[in-house]
């Protein structure tokens, strides 16, 4: 482990993060709300801590290795998650305890969007802006993590996307490639945000709401500046704009990168994962629509179609926005959408869940097992598009899935141990490990009323989901820390 | 497909099955209850149908191939399940509709032990005996299925146990090996049953109860001749006898086979799966005991220890007997035990679940994935005992697990579609796919009050679980039926 290099990066990161406290401070100035001091103080404190970490090791410029990569990625989210809670703790109105502040901050940064706050409409503008911005920053971090770092680390089968790196990655140099890719992706991310904000604004949102919701839409985050979420605007047009940008943000950003460079859209339809992603969402929308119409739960077609499509896309893509109380929808709809969130978005998108590509690989591998039973001697390759998938990738995907389920079960039991009921425990873990946001039962509206211990378990679940399980899990093994 | 050979075996099977209606008829005679006519009529009808199927093809003695094996195994359970409901339908008191009769019969034969009947204490003796006998016959079928047939078919990684068959199995001859192995296993099974019945009888049960409960104990079935299950006897001694025989029946019968031939017990402790099985049950018992004591739910030590150990072993081994209303136990206990049932018994035992050996392989493979992340170039073998496990077996186990989870989710949604609530739907599928028996929520006592559609879904779940998922799934693929 190159401790000093890790410390240097973390110090830089904190100093950079301290700057992100300034836009909310500006918002506080504009609206004359009480958030000005907390955000300025937080900015200075975080800058100071960052500088304190950075100064003694500012010349430690080792090339980073695989292990350092795991550590940095985990520290990135945990340290920013904790320090991100600072302005919330410092704000006097409302008074937010540490656990809640860190929960809200981590839930924002991991783009989970589970909230412990209520009465969001009445919060100071600066805090309402800050929450949205946390999601946007988190989304940005995820894109870089997913596209530039995870494939190098080989987590959960993501070496599938390591086309450019021939040979094994042991001790491959991580640093140079990240910078180049990251820059291009940030431009795309920024462009999408601007387009989304403009569309919201043209559809009738105030600039404040438009920017705020654009932040949480492209991040597939789900935070809103209102308790009523997207439902607050009561506008099918705004709902559909949101759907379009959730779809775009749920697709592999490497596809957008290609679209940007080649000025073509054809490759989207040639991509297996994109087709599955859109196909799954279309199917879910149709099933939701048909069930709602059959039960007349929302009345006629006019009031049903946009809620059905919006909630299907919002939950299954793991955005977690709501236009209506979908958790009370009839028969299997809430549970079905929650299960769909386990599939989630595409790899290298801001979406959560186990990712569509892994789901497709699991299906194809399951199919191969059946063929092998019938024709024991047949050699069957699992393919994505035209390329055969390496057995090692398939093994990693299986491992990912099994670890996901096992940890899910353990965390659900832990939550029940803190006193939650079965439905709440199940859906709370589901909503956080998939980085979806809203749950069912006691946590369908917000996570404010559950106990502190349960909140910490759920924060761990958010991190697990966002860090593709193994990035975090690996730190808990003795082998990782052995020289 | 050798249709005529399949038909011949099925006809023989039915004729043999018709004989199993005679013992309950004898019981009806002894106790002078109204079951005599239904069982005699059923016996004749089944004999007639069997003969009708057998006569035209009685000379069709083809060697059976792999595909025929899948078909026969599935038909074995479905046809016996359906015809096994006949005496229940024919009995006038109580009146049992077809769906319930088939559910009860299939639940017996698959050793699931979920019941739709209430007031079991007041049923005719013949029916009470018949239910227990169904489980015993089912358990016998499972042992043969698991030890002799599944390894040949290579279902769900069970080729792990195909030590004696060198080379690929395509079109391997199934017939000769089954007979020899089956005979030895039946002796062991019979011996265990006699030992168990004797122990129960010495502990105070009537001969009727002792034989009945011995039947369902060695089959890890869970049916009882009383609504109160083992709790009816209110005897810690009987509970502990039951625990001992559930443990024995939950261990790989090939281990007992070795013990019988080598007159030694040492190999049990050298077997990875047995050690894990016993270790898991010990851990669960301890956690259950500590939690119950900490919450004082059952009062002091004297009333707690035997309920704790009994329910932990009974649920986690998937027997499903109860001595108390464990579904109402505090905090996470009911859900934890239900989750433990997913691990279940050892391979080639009468226990259900995904089987301990698969669970251990999943853990080991998960651990390997973590080591690979840290040391990307390392070659890590997954071992059971001292033997490296073939990658193909590992793939099959992954496939099994993923299919299990996916089908679980689909069936849970289907149940909610029929109107069940989330907790009931979850635990009903869990209790049937693991062949456990009792669930939580609306189905913690019995399955009588849920709708008929839900019952058929659950019957499918029982079959899936009992047939190790893929044996049944493979029949739904076009590739299986293609020439
Ligand atoms: K989200
Ligand atoms: K059972």
UniProtKB/TrEMBL annotation, chains A, B:
<dbReference type="GO" id="GO:0005886">
    <property type="term" value="C:plasma membrane"/>
</dbReference>
<feature type="binding site">
    <location>
        <position position="435"/>
    </location>
    <ligand>
        <name>K(+)</name>
    </ligand>
</feature>
<feature type="transmembrane region" description="Helical">
    <location>
        <begin position="456"/>
        <end position="481"/>
    </location>
</feature>
<comment type="function">
    <text>Low-affinity potassium transport system. Interacts with Trk system potassium uptake protein TrkA.</text>
</comment>
<feature type="transmembrane region" description="Helical">
    <location>
        <begin position="276"/>
        <end position="298"/>
    </location>
</feature>
<keyword id="KW-0813">Transport</keyword>
<feature type="binding site">
    <location>
        <position position="220"/>
    </location>
    <ligand>
        <name>K(+)</name>
    </ligand>
</feature>
<feature type="binding site">
    <location>
        <position position="436"/>
    </location>
    <ligand>
        <name>K(+)</name>
    </ligand>
</feature>
<keyword id="KW-0479">Metal-binding</keyword>
<feature type="binding site">
    <location>
        <position position="111"/>
    </location>
    <ligand>
        <name>K(+)</name>
    </ligand>
</feature>
<feature type="binding site">
    <location>
        <position position="221"/>
    </location>
    <ligand>
        <name>K(+)</name>
    </ligand>
</feature>
<keyword id="KW-0633">Potassium transport</keyword>
<keyword id="KW-1003">Cell membrane</keyword>
<keyword id="KW-0406">Ion transport</keyword>
<dbReference type="GO" id="GO:0015379">
    <property type="term" value="F:potassium:chloride symporter activity"/>
</dbReference>
<dbReference type="InterPro" id="IPR004772">
    <property type="entry name" value="TrkH"/>
</dbReference>
<feature type="transmembrane region" description="Helical">
    <location>
        <begin position="393"/>
        <end position="416"/>
    </location>
</feature>
<feature type="transmembrane region" description="Helical">
    <location>
        <begin position="69"/>
        <end position="90"/>
    </location>
</feature>
<keyword id="KW-0997">Cell inner membrane</keyword>
<feature type="binding site">
    <location>
        <position position="112"/>
    </location>
    <ligand>
        <name>K(+)</name>
    </ligand>
</feature>
<feature type="transmembrane region" description="Helical">
    <location>
        <begin position="237"/>
        <end position="255"/>
    </location>
</feature>
<comment type="similarity">
    <text>Belongs to the TrkH potassium transport family.</text>
</comment>
<feature type="transmembrane region" description="Helical">
    <location>
        <begin position="38"/>
        <end position="57"/>
    </location>
</feature>
<feature type="transmembrane region" description="Helical">
    <location>
        <begin position="331"/>
        <end position="354"/>
    </location>
</feature>
<keyword id="KW-0630">Potassium</keyword>
<dbReference type="GO" id="GO:0046872">
    <property type="term" value="F:metal ion binding"/>
</dbReference>
<keyword id="KW-0472">Membrane</keyword>
<keyword id="KW-1133">Transmembrane helix</keyword>
<dbReference type="InterPro" id="IPR003445">
    <property type="entry name" value="Cat_transpt"/>
</dbReference>
<feature type="binding site">
    <location>
        <position position="319"/>
    </location>
    <ligand>
        <name>K(+)</name>
    </ligand>
</feature>
<keyword id="KW-0812">Transmembrane</keyword>
<protein>
    <recommendedName>
        <fullName>Trk system potassium uptake protein</fullName>
    </recommendedName>
</protein>
<feature type="transmembrane region" description="Helical">
    <location>
        <begin position="184"/>
        <end position="203"/>
    </location>
</feature>
<feature type="binding site">
    <location>
        <position position="318"/>
    </location>
    <ligand>
        <name>K(+)</name>
    </ligand>
</feature>
<feature type="transmembrane region" description="Helical">
    <location>
        <begin position="136"/>
        <end position="163"/>
    </location>
</feature>
<dbReference type="Pfam" id="PF02386">
    <property type="entry name" value="TrkH"/>
</dbReference>
């Amino acid at each position: 482990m190159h401790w000093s290099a890790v410390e240097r990066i973390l110090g830089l990161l904190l100093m950079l993060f301290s700057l992100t406290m300034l836009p909310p401070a500006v918002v506080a100035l504009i609206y004359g709300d009480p958030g000005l001091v907390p955000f300025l103080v937080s900015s200075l404190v975080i800058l100071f801590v960052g500088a304190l970490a950075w100064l003694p090791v500012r010349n430690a410029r080792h090339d980073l290795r695989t292990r350092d990569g795991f550590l940095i990625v985990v520290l990135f989210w945990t340290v920013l998650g904790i320090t991100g809670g600072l302005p919330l703790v410092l704000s006097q109105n409302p008074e937010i305890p540490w656990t809640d502040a860190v929960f809200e901050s981590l839930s924002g940064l991991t783009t989970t969007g589970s909230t412990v706050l209520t009465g969001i409409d009445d919060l100071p503008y600066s805090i309402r802006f800050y929450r949205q911005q946390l999601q946007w920053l988190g989304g940005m971090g995820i894109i870089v993590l997913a596209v530039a770092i995870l494939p190098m680390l080989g987590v959960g089968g993501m070496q599938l996307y390591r086309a450019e790196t021939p040979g094994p990655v042991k001790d491959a140099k991580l640093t140079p490639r990240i910078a180049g890719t990251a820059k291009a992706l940030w431009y795309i991310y920024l462009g999408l945000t601007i387009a989304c904000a403009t569309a919201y604004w043209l559809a009738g949102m105030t600039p404040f709401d438009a920017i705020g919701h654009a932040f949480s839409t492209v991040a597939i985050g789900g935070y809103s500046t209102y308790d009523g979420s997207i439902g607050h605007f009561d506008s099918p047009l705004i709902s559909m704009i949101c759907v379009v940008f959730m779809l775009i943000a749920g697709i592999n950003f490497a596809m957008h990168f290609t679209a940007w460079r080649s000025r073509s859209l054809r490759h989207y339809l040639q991509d297996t994962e994109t087709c599955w992603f859109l196909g799954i969402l279309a199917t879910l929308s149709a099933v939701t629509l048909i069930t709602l119409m059959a039960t007349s739960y929302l009345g006629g077609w006019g009031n049903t179609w946009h809620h059905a499509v919006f909630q299907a896309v919002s939950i299954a893509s793991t955005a977690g926005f709501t236009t209506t109380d979908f958790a009370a929808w009839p028969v299997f709809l809430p549970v079905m959408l929650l299960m769909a969130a386990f599939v989630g978005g595409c790899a290298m998108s801001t979406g959560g869940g186990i990712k569509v590509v892994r789901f497709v690989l699991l299906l194809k591998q399951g199919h191969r097992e059946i063929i092998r039973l019938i024709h024991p001697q047949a050699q069957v390759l699992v393919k994505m598009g035209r390329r055969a998938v390496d057995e090692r990738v398939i093994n990693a995907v299986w491992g990912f899935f099994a670890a996901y389920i096992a940890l899910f079960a353990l965390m659900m039991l832990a939550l029940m141990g803190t006193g939650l009921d079965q439905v709440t425990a199940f859906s709370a873990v589901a909503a956080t490990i998939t980085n979806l946001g809203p749950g069912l039962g006691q946590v369908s509206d917000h996570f404010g009323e559950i106990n502190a211990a349960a909140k910490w378990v759920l924060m761990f679940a958010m991190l697990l989901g966002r860090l593709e399980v193994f990035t975090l899990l690996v730190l808990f093994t003795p082998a990782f820390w052995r020289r």
